[in-house]
Design brief:
Number of helices: 3
Number of strands: 0
Shape: rod-shaped
Radius of gyration: 36 Å
Number of domains: 1
Distance between the termini: 21 Å
Strand content: under 5%
Oligomer: single chain
Helix content: over 70%
Largest sheet: none
Length: 187
């Protein structure tokens, strides 16, 4: 096919092209799912570890305050401990609120990861289709040219696009066409 001519049919030989696309998409899909799985698992482990650590720290302070409340301190000290207890309770509430906000953000991030994965797999499949066309297109054209030559009919000069594969086979076809034409075997 001449360099300036564009093909408009991208599924020239669907069974082989779909296998080619599958060979490109499947490893990308498996690798992506593997990476996303470990990213999600590590994120959840990290969030659980942070929450556990914060709970331990808050619990330690609560236990200390409760222990101090059992002692007989002057009213001024008891009031300060009550203020400290209230601040600790507020801090615990704020930490819980931040933690659940982080969980919500983490859930949104997982959704974005899977959307990105879907888009990436689609793009890999589309690119594989384009590259498979560089193989399937020339093979399809060579088959049609061979059928025409088998009928004893002349064919136009055999040229492929710059980015097509099997240019050496096109050159051999052109050599065959010229040989048959010079022997008067083509109409």
């Amino acid at each position: 096919m001449a360099t300036g001519i564009k093909r408009h049919k991208y599924f020239i030989h669907p069974s082989s092209q779909l296998k080619y696309i599958e060979m490109a998409v499947l490893p990308a899909l498996i690798l992506s799912l593997f990476c996303i799985y470990f990213l999600i698992k590590n994120g959840e482990i990290f969030l659980t570890k942070v929450r556990t650590q914060l709970s331990i720290e808050v619990s330690y302070f609560n236990d200390t305050i409760e222990h101090l409340n059992q002692e007989n301190y002057p009213p001024e000290t008891v009031n300060k401990m009550e203020v400290l207890k209230k601040r600790l309770s507020n801090l615990q509430y704020d930490l819980e609120r931040e933690y659940f906000g982080t969980l919500k953000l983490w859930a949104e991030t997982k959704i974005v990861l899977f959307l990105f994965l879907g888009i990436a797999i689609f793009l890999v499949g589309f690119i594989a289709l384009l590259f498979s066309h560089r193989i399937a297109g020339p093979i399809y054209r060579l088959r049609k040219l061979a059928e025409t030559l088998a009928e004893g009919k002349d064919i136009p000069p055999v040229k492929f696009r710059n980015y097509d594969e099997f240019k050496e086979v096109a050159a051999a076809f052109e050599k065959l066409r010229n040989s048959l034409k010079s022997k008067g075997m083509l109409k």
